[in-house]
Design brief:
Radius of gyration: 16 Å
Structural class: alpha/beta
Number of strands: 9
Mean pLDDT: 95
Order of helices and strands: HHEEHHEHEHEEHEEHE
CATH topology: Rossmann fold
Length: 226
């Protein structure tokens, strides 16, 4: 294992490090400005080891770059002015790919937020792997008014896959827009995307994992909520 990968994992919980070393390798998602990230292999045994180790039946969403996050990251590579010099919140950040893309694009401060503590371990590894400074926030922000967190831009990559989550997320984001926040969404065609107050800014055809997505490509939009 190379020194930079060892340094990225140094000091993180031993179970997490063991799983990363066993099931993950480093990739640079296409079009994401050369950012590097750990990517999972062997979906079923990977998920099973996480389930047994952490006692959670939730999939290890932090183990892959999902198409909504990749599309948002590519958009920020193409349009850094969207975040340059601004305070950015990456809501449901997972492995923090989009958070790091915003920081690399020139954002003044970036927060990677998720409710999964293991996702925060992966975000910590990724910020070290890429040499970029971001804030990690493990907290359920959807239970609070968006006004409680200071930011100019909110990034939402691939969060509209489940009915209950989407139902909570949409009014929260509408409120954020009403507060003057710029809300950018990565939409790879999940079941419950926002339809009101949105407009398409960009579209990408992304190569994706057949094992994860049951298709070799995903047509993925970047939306702005107004």
């Amino acid at each position: 294992m190379s020194d930079d990968i060892s340094n990225a994992l140094d000091g993180l919980p031993s179970l997490f490090v063991e799983i990363v070393k066993k099931y993950m390798y480093v990739i640079s998602p296409e079009g994401c400005g050369g950012l590097r990230m750990f990517c999972g292999t062997e979906l079923v045994p990977f998920w099973e080891d996480v389930r047994q180790g952490y006692g959670s039946d939730e999939p290890p969403y932090w183990g892959w770059a999902w198409p909504g996050s990749i599309a948002l990251s590519r958009y920020l590579v193409d349009h850094p002015e969207a975040v340059r010099g601004r305070q950015v919140l990456d809501l449901g950040a997972g492995n923090a790919l989009t958070t790091l893309a915003a920081k690399q694009a020139g954002a003044a401060h970036c927060i990677a937020n998720d409710i999964d503590p293991v996702a925060m371990y992966m975000a910590a590894a990724h910020q070290r792997l890429n040499g970029l400074d971001i804030e990690l926030l493990e907290h359920n922000l959807l239970g609070e008014d968006p006004a409680v967190i200071e930011c100019d831009v909110i990034l939402v990559g691939d969060m509209f896959y489940e009915r209950q989550l989407a139902a909570a997320l949409k009014p929260w984001l509408h409120r954020a827009c009403d507060l003057g926040r710029l809300v950018l969404i990565g939409d790879p065609g999940r079941n419950y995307p926002p339809k009101e107050r949105t407009r398409e800014l960009a579209a990408y055809t992304l190569q994706v994992s057949l094992e994860l997505e049951n298709t070799p490509t995903r047509n993925t939009r970047v939306l702005q909520m107004d």
